[in-house]
Amino acid sequence: MKHHYLFSASLFAALATSSAVAANEIPSSDDQNEIIVTGEKAARSLQKTTASVSVTTEKKLAEENILTIQDVYNRTANVSETYGSSGFSIRGIDQRGVSGGGDAATATVFVDGAPVPQDVLSNGPTDMWDVAQVEIFRGPQSTIQGLNALAGAVHIRTQDPTFGWSVKGRALVSSFDTTQFAVAGGGPLVPGELAFRVSAEKRDSDGYIRNVTRNAPESPVDSTSIRSKLLWTPSALSGFEARLSYHHFETKGGYLFTYVDATVPDYFDNRTNPSDYPNSSDVDNDQVTLDLRYDLGGGLSLSTLGTWTDTDFTRKYDGDSSAASIAYSDIAGGAEIFTQEVRLNYEGDRLSGLAGLFYYNRDQYRRSHQVTLVPTPGPTIASLLTPALGAQTATQVATLYTTALPNIPVDYTSDFPTKVETMALFADARYRLTDRLSLLGGFRYDRERNKIGGEAIARFVGTLPNPADYGPLAPAFAGVNAAVLGLVEDASGSAPAGTRTFNAFLPKAGMEMAWTPDIATAFVAQRGYRSGGSGFNTARSQLFPYDPEFTWNYELSLRSVWLDGRLTVNANAFYIDWKDQQTTANFGNGLYDTHTVNAGKSHLYGFELELAHRVSPAFDWYASLGHTRTKFDSFVTDVGSITDLSGLEFPYAPRWTLAGGANMRFGGGFNANVNASYRSAVYTDVAIPQADNRVSPRTLVNARVGYETRHWSLSLFANNLFDEKYDQYLNSFTNFAVIGAPRSVGVILEAGF
């Protein structure tokens, strides 16, 4: 198995091992090939963007056979998958919150400006077919993006219509019965004024895990994506552009994450799951965006962007992960999200910037019915009995009781509606004091109102231990039985909807120095924010409030161009101070006696470095290096007893990420790409000892060779070329694991004009 590590090491050495602050793309002095970043709501070249942003262009998507957003995460410095494809972290910050606390995300994925709901990121409309560019912003984006951007933001921009006719198609066949058939194209409806573009994609796969109980794929993919766009540039209104788009996406597939039975010998090669109840997700997503832009002249332009997203999903999972019919869960959820932004941009000789108003409304529902197994709280039983029986007898009763009833079977039905409404005023500007020195600044005033309610019905559906079987301990067992039934009863009830309002002022300030036309440095300080809310404690059937959390981010950047524009070297270094961190705390009455509290204080620091070099028209390469160190400075939780987790690292926060790749273009239309990525070991949980939740480093190597003519191309590719076997998550108690994707090999035929 050592040969693939040697190969990867050689590759990185050859590529000079560096970077990913930005593009992972070929630099060029040709303006047509200049990388333009749009995620900060102003079109700006990558070399003039001080924020740490990784840009994956359409060219790179094709060269590296990138099919999903998860493929982009794996190739980006200081970005990592978490718990399989269920989420991601940026600079060590899990987009769901570093310890599970809080309702809002810390990072949001946008498609054409519309936010993708948090609940569907792993099964959502984020495939890369007909995508023009992906931008991953690292670090707080609260000034520009507002809510749900404390860690960063991901912007996916799809292809716009053009006034020239074009059409392209793709057929892909690869391992695990994976197929993709896709088409896209369009042109003018009214020459020079009205154009359209449509795209469609059908993707199917059996996945790489087999369910041995149901004799079916455990995590299949069956997705359909249909997108249509209109571009209107009326000749009667010079400078006006309107873009209207509609996207329908639906998929039937596996659950948020897929477990492999780790008790099976060599479970990386014998990838099975024994669940009798389906672990599945069905997602239906519709998105409409209306983007209006008007050039007012004199450097001023007015823009409005309205988005509407309607998402519904149903999820099922086996609560006992076995062939027995013991526990299961059915979840129905979704959200209707509306956003509206009005923005004025200005580009002058010395001053450039923008100011705008923003409105956000999310109406979310989540209903579930499940039979769940709640671990019987032995320590709590012993603690309650000690005053009456003494420590020794209380411990004996608790041990006997948990042996007889290790889990409390509960039939649980719940309904949790949530509404969030946000209004904001924001501005961002750059002022050139001299030809070299510029001041940077901005702010956002954010006002959020959120409302959450809860209703739950819980019933005990098991068999209690018979007190008569325990002789003189019978009264104690009768008392514990009553307490267990009381715990279940406590989980029934309703919490009246609680409304809370939060105001936040989020400033940003910095300066940039252009030392030469090709070398610039900048320093920026800005405040990040995630709003407070109310958490529903399932065990107590009550709402508990929690407060906002804030970060201060201090960042240095370097942007440089060398060798007449053929080489770029970019870097960012950062330090983040985090206060009032939202964390999930347990209050002693079992696994589900949890809600969010402001218990944490932490800090993190690191850097990203990026190189991209076009050696010649026949060869180019890139490389990236990311480093992050995270630490909880203060983190006290109550899990039966007070536990101080201070000093631990964030979950899914790799200290090192590396990526590199090279493109070769041979004579006669032949070409090739090889790329690799490395992620150091990560901890998958916040617990003592944290080493028990460590998963090992992994290195992935991908390759593609192809032949291309003017109107068609044929490629052979291999992902995870050396079949690296690695865990994303491993539970030593249940002996189930989330593993990385094994090697897959396939062919792609593309044609177009």
Automatic annotation (TrEMBL):
The keyword Disulfide bond does not apply. Keywords: Cell outer membrane, Ion transport, Iron, Iron transport, Membrane, Receptor, Signal, TonB box, Transmembrane, Transmembrane beta strand, Transport. Residues 252-721 form the TonB-dependent receptor-like beta-barrel domain. Pfam families: Plug, TonB_dep_Rec_b-barrel. GO terms for biological process: iron ion transport. Belongs to the TonB-dependent receptor family. This is TonB-dependent receptor. It is found in: Cell outer membrane. GO terms for cellular component: cell outer membrane. It is a multi-pass membrane protein. PANTHER family: FERRICHROME IRON RECEPTOR-RELATED, TONB-DEPENDENT OUTER MEMBRANE RECEPTOR. It comes from Sphingobium chlorophenolicum L-1. Residues 46-153 form the TonB-dependent receptor plug domain. Residues 1-22 form the signal peptide.
